[in-house]
Design brief:
Layout lengths: L1 H10 L6 E5 L5 H8 L8 E5 L2 H9 L5 E8 L3 E2 L1 H8 L5 E9 L3 E4 L10 E4 L1 H14 L4 E4 L3 H10 L9 E4 L1 H6 L3 E5 L8 E8 L11 E8 L7 H10 L5 E8 L7 E8 L5 H13 L2 E9 L14 H11 L1
Parallel strand pairs: 1-2, 1-3, 7-8, 7-9
Antiparallel strand pairs: 3-4, 3-11, 5-11, 6-9, 6-10, 12-14, 12-15, 13-14
Length: about 325
């Protein structure tokens, strides 16, 4: 998979590959980029203020790849990423990373928990710590920030100025990088929270199958009608494919117009996946293929005997 990023860099004159992430340094996205097992041996990590900005730079050729959050085990899909991948010039997912999400509450030196009246953090982080905040700081106001690390960076930027909040909720690493004091750790409401990140590049060579893969695509209906979604899902179910994520997103064309972002177990080179996508292409106005790539958890797909590649080969031989 690192070859995808490296080939882009080689085409641009042999420079080191550039990979964007939701910055600044110390975000969970930065941690995911650092933990990506298939990253090139050497690359330049470039921070961006938003998912849209990172993916726009990728589409414009300023980056060779980007790491973006796509799903959280507590909050579900990340709307900004789902929408950016569903629209605009095609992009392709070539890998995924799972990052356990643990939060701390960090302050400037000398600030006590009792002094905190305003808390800065990202909206997804805030949604995962509301119970803790309600118990320990019930009167504190929430101040949205671009990222959890940005909350820590802005709080520490100028100790003589009001950052707009008294404490930041962020990763431990971000608090340490910016020299903040940590008042409490593991303040998330769900100790098993995990965020899934995906490595994205412009379309090229699909990573080869590993036996432990996912395929992601987006479906657009011809028109909204009773049973429309069921008809689409039947193309997947009858082929014995396990679906691991299904989310609807507005197409932004009109009220009630939605597309469907889907993850399934398997690789596009698997007969059952290829046949399902062909079937969907026949009944959808558009099928946007977003990639087949190795699963981060290493789990193998559970394939019923009738859906195996061998079963498909035997059926083809029978038909012939």
């Amino acid at each position: 998979m690192s070859q995808n990023l490296t080939s882009h860099a080689e085409a641009a004159g042999g420079r080191i590959p550039r990979a964007g992430f939701l910055g600044p340094e110390g975000t969970f996205t930065h941690m995911a980029l650092q933990a990506w097992r298939d990253a090139p041996p050497e690359f330049e990590a470039v921070p961006f203020g938003s998912v849209d900005a990172a993916l726009r730079a990728l589409r414009e050729g300023d980056l060779d790849g980007a790491m973006v959050p796509i799903e959280n085990s507590v909050e579900g899909g990340v709307s900004a990423t789902l929408d950016a991948l569903s629209n605009g010039d095609p992009l392709e997912i070539i890998g995924e990373v799972l990052v356990p999400v643990t939060f701390v509450i960090a302050v400037r030196p000398g600030v006590a928990l009792a002094d905190v009246t305003r808390i800065g953090t990202h909206s997804h982080a805030w949604a995962q710590v509301r119970r803790w905040v309600g118990e320990h700081l019930p009167n504190a106001a929430y101040v949205p920030t671009l990222s959890t690390a940005a909350a820590a960076a802005d709080l520490a930027a100028d100790l003589d100025e009001d950052a707009g909040y008294d404490a930041a909720i962020c990763a431990r690493g971000a608090a340490e990088v910016h020299g903040l004091d940590i008042l409490a750790e593991d303040i998330g409401d769900n100790s098993a929270a995990v965020t899934r990140f995906v490595a994205v590049t412009t379309p090229g060579r699909v990573p080869p199958p590993t036996g432990s893969d996912k395929t992601t695509f987006v479906l657009f209906q011809h028109l909204d009608k009773p049973g429309g979604l069921m008809g689409l899902l039947e193309q997947i179910a009858v082929r014995g494919i396990n679906m691991t994520r299904l989310e609807s997103r507005p197409t932004k064309e009109s009220m009630g117009s939605y597309c469907f972002s889907i993850d399934v177990e398997g690789h596009i080179s698997d007969a059952r996946i290829g046949e399902a996508l062909m079937g969907l292409q026949r009944v959808c106005s558009e099928v946007r293929f977003l990639g087949s790539y190795p699963r981060a958890d290493g789990g193998a797909a559970q394939v019923p005997p009738f859906a195996s590649d061998q079963a498909h080969r035997e059926a083809q031989a029978w038909l012939a």
